[in-house]
Specification:
With 246 residues, this protein is an alpha/beta fold. The protein has a single domain, classed as Rossmann fold. Helix content is 39%, strand content 20%. The chain contains nine helices and eight strands. Strands 1, 2, 3, 4, 5, 6, 7 and 8 form an eight-stranded mixed sheet that branches. Strand 1, helix 5 and strand 2 form a beta-alpha-beta unit. The longest helix has 19 residues.
Length: 246
């Protein structure tokens, strides 16, 4: 059955309004509205966008709002150098780059196809403070101890993400990982891994990026001491033999 005539236009109008509300909620720069609208179009209209969400209003909620909700955390809103690991479709990296135009954001992605999309999306949305790096997190030596924030959304178990992030962080820097419903075993493993990596865990921060969103949490791990030189281990080892007894 075809959609009712005009329903597509209503969804686009609703998405435009939802983006405007995000800009107002977080007090974003005047340029952010047009940039987020352009990014939304890239996510929903580019046939090579690495996402399964093509409805604009759904994409605003699950992609843009879910990314920007991290601005509630001082570690995010005050960051100066961000690495977004496994950036994929540029989430949360590109929305955060738009929200924080004075912050340098590096989108670290191992898939060349996804890197190509990231480049197109960044150009379309006029994001001048984001750089795409085609590499695995473990194989990016130039990033070591350069970032005061590392972000990761739907990337890997927490212990694995912690191993990816720790070598990249400066002392006092933070890893922020997007997660759904809390998992006690995953959190316990991450805490054990953190102790080996020079990180300290913080209580998960519950968030509601949009009305009706359930079981959303931001997990924060702060670098409190230097990460041992043996990290990162060679490519693939973090997943194959995860720290923390996963």
């Amino acid at each position: 059955m075809s959609a009712p005539r005009g329903s597509g236009r209503r969804h686009h109008r609703g998405a435009r309004q939802a983006v405007a509300e995000l800009v107002a909620t977080y007090g974003l720069p005047l340029t952010a509205d047009a940039q987020l609208q352009a990014l939304l179009a890239a996510l929903t209209e580019d046939p090579h966008a690495p996402t399964t969400i093509h409805d604009p209003l759904t994409a605003v909620r699950d992609h843009l709002a879910d990314s920007l909700v991290a601005l509630e955390l001082p570690a995010v809103s005050g960051a100066t150098q961000i690495a977004d690991l496994g950036s994929g479709a540029g989430l949360p990296g590109l929305p955060l780059a738009i929200a924080l135009p004075a912050t340098a954001v590096t989108l670290v992605e191992s898939s060349r196809r996804k890197c190509e999309f990231l480049g197109r999306a960044g150009d379309v949305a006029a994001v001048t403070n984001a750089t795409v790096v085609h590499a695995r997190a473990e194989e990016w030596p130039a990033g070591r101890e350069t970032c005061d924030l590392v972000t990761a959304r739907a990337l890997a178990p927490l212990a694995v993400v912690a191993e990816y992030a720790a070598p990249l962080l400066t002392l006092g820097g933070a890893l922020v990982a997007w997660r759904g419903q809390r998992d006690a075993a995953d959190e316990e493993s991450a805490a054990r891994a953190a102790a080996e990596l020079g990180l300290e865990t913080r209580p998960p921060h519950p968030v509601t990026p949009y009305p009706g969103a359930l079981h959303r949490h931001l997990h924060v791990l702060v670098k409190s001491s230097p990460t041992p030189d043996r990290f990162p281990r060679r490519s693939g080892m973090a997943r194959k033999r995860p720290l923390g007894g996963v």
